[in-house]
Amino acid sequence: xxxxxxxxxxxxxxxxxxxxxxxxxxxxxxxxxxxxxxxxxxxxxxxxxxxxxxxxxxxxxxxxxxxxxxxxxxxxxxxxxxxxxxxxxxxxxxxxxxxxxxxxxxxxxxxxxxxxxxxxxxxxxxxxxxxxxxxxxxxxxxxxx
Amino acid sequence: xxxxxxxxxxxxxxxxxxxxxxxxxxxxxxxxxxxxxxxxxxxxxxxxxxxxxxxxxxxxxxxxxxxxxxxxxxxxxxxxxxxxxxxxxxxxxxxxxxxxxxxxxxxxxxxxxxxxxxxxxxxxxxxxxxxxxxxxxxxxxxxxxxxxxxxxxxxxxxxxxxxxxxxxxxxxxxxxxxxxxxxxxxxxxxxxxxxxxxxxxxxxxxxxxxxxxxxxx
Lengths: 145, 217
Description:
By secondary structure, chain A is mostly helical.
């Protein structure tokens, strides 16, 4: 059995990194929409609804450190992950566009940026939600040993 | 200690965001200023409706949509600034009909131009906008009952508005709007400089600065 104080510090650090990631993603998303003026499509909005609250929900698990943070932070993360996964399928054309839910306003398959040839905004979202979920699970698992 | 780390991180992130925004906006402004010099046609096309003296040294370019409430609300303010600086400002209207079906009103406006009633028609459109351009229930047909106020020959409008040249001109304006990064209406440029923070005072300051630079006292 390792020192409980030490494991809780490890858990806290992981959760803190998770919060950093959520905050960076939130600001990045706001940068795209408010500064670069990319209009968010409806699927992007659903993902933002899942992401933005985590900026204030995760600190509730940081002060004081609560390994039960998964209970209240993971559901939103999973919802965001699923929406992002669907968005990516739509974006890459694996789901035919005829099924697209957003005929009005900004198209969900509108291409704004592509970094390094394959990183798109929906891809960034999916990667971010995956990382958030992984960090959340990691922070609570290690500290419960 | 953890609190300090957390607060430090939060503050740093916010600062990084503000810093990145100002760097990005600065770069955009330089890019657009470059375009203003090299490709002035992006701002003023042959077909563009203008208001004010041709000798004016300050060009106020407005990307607008007849169905946009803010454009309507800004209109008296813009007129007031132009009136306050006689002969010094030329207003150039460009179309960015982002509202669904707003092309329809641009077509009417362009058809009215052929009757020499452009500004009268635009005034009537702005004044009666709430009747036909409500967001929950747009009823473009209702505009026809207000158009006689502008002294238009409605039968002629109905024929002229189907001119394919108007469709082309709208497409051209939308392409230019995209190139210049206009995503909202009204989108203002003063001598090629974008209005970075939206607002009446900010617009006035931008115009005043250009007047000062071009008409030294």
